[in-house]
Amino acid sequence: MQTSAADSAADSMADARAPAADHPATVIHRTLLIIGGAEDRIGRSVVLKRFVKLAGGRRSRIVVIPTASGYAKEVSEAYRDVFTRLRGGEVSVVDPKTRRAASDTAMVGVLDDATGIFLTGGSQSKLAQNIVGTPVGAAIHRAYQRGAVVAGTSAGASIMSRFMISLGEEGLTPRQRSSQISAGLGLVEDIIIDQHFDQRGRYGRLMSMVACSPNLLGMGIDENTAAEIRDGKAMSIIGAGAIFLIDARNAITDAPDARRGAPLLVSGAVVHTLPSGSTFDLEDVELTHFVERHPDIEGAIVPAQFRAARSGADRAAGP
């Protein structure tokens, strides 16, 4: 059987369009680094060092977003210095002061080129106002989807979730309507995140949130501690503290009937306390692995004087 020139050409074009068997499609892994605030910047900087590594080390293109802070310039310079000390690559700053500014094509372009994005602490309400639902917010989503690591500390941690705590009373007892939620970026879908968790006694407000919305997991992150979440499922904990995870899906609560300010009944919630070395499956909500670690005190814990100063600055900036 003879093959015409046209048939041969068509076969050649089909071969060119077909994917090569020895060149499989690249698998993109999506990574979040969610930090409980007051991370060590002057010692071993375990958490921030991990961010720099995930962003690409010396070849990284890091974008700092200080919009939550009332001292954006100073905060940007501080993180530029620490990322440079940790042998990161290029560091840029994107700081939309208004929602209109968050439409700036130059800002969007910088984010579209980033390998790592870092949202600083301050007021999560400012982040919600100026970034969520804007072109800058969309660029953060695109960066995450293409494999750039997105990190946030304190307010920058809370904004990661679809629903975030924007205001709330501190304390151990969960109370009805003691907190307020706002829309976040939605990089984390079914978890509500709180930060400075142990240091500011935020157990009660996180428990009240999951009592009212039991489909959501509650995640409280200690200072100088981070949750590294890969592909929305596998979570590893690093740093000096722990992560407190509340699962109230099968709990009994009087949240629908309790009066404003009343202590809430929550019975049957499952609590996981996960220190550094824990690996947790967020889809199946179960521990998958644990390697006990004993970090040295000097390297793992931020010096007390530095932590006190940082904590005071964060309180002045907002919830």
Task: Provide the CATH top-level class.
Answer: Alpha Beta
Order of helices and strands: HEHEHEHEHHEHEEEHEEEEEEEEEHH
Gyration radius (Cα, Å) is 22 Å
Rounded average pLDDT:
89
Largest sheet: number of strands, sense, barrel closure: 9 strands, mixed
What spatial form do the alpha-carbon principal axes imply? globular
Number of strands: 17
| CATH level 4 superfamily | Class I glutamine amidotransferase (GATase) domain
Assigned CATH architecture: 3-Layer(aba) Sandwich
Termini Cα gap: 79 Å
Q: What proportion of the residues is helical, as a percent range?
A: 25-40%
CATH fold type: Rossmann fold
Oligomer: single chain
Helical segment count: 10
Q: Which secondary-structure class do the elements indicate?
A: alpha/beta
Number of domains: 1
Widest β-sheet, arrangement of strands:
3-2-4-5-1-10-11-16-17
Strand content: 25-35%
Low-confidence stretches: 1-6, 8-21, 297-304
Please characterize this protein's 3D structure.
It is built from ten helices and 17 strands. It is globular, with a radius of gyration of 22 Å. The termini are far apart. The chain has one domain: Rossmann fold (3-Layer(aba) Sandwich). It is of the alpha/beta class and 319 residues long. A hairpin with a 3-residue loop joins strand 10 and strand 11. Helix 4 runs parallel beside helix 6. A nine-stranded mixed sheet has the order 3-2-4-5-1-10-11-16-17. Strands 8-9-12-15 form a four-stranded mixed sheet. It has a two-stranded antiparallel ribbon with strand order 6-7.
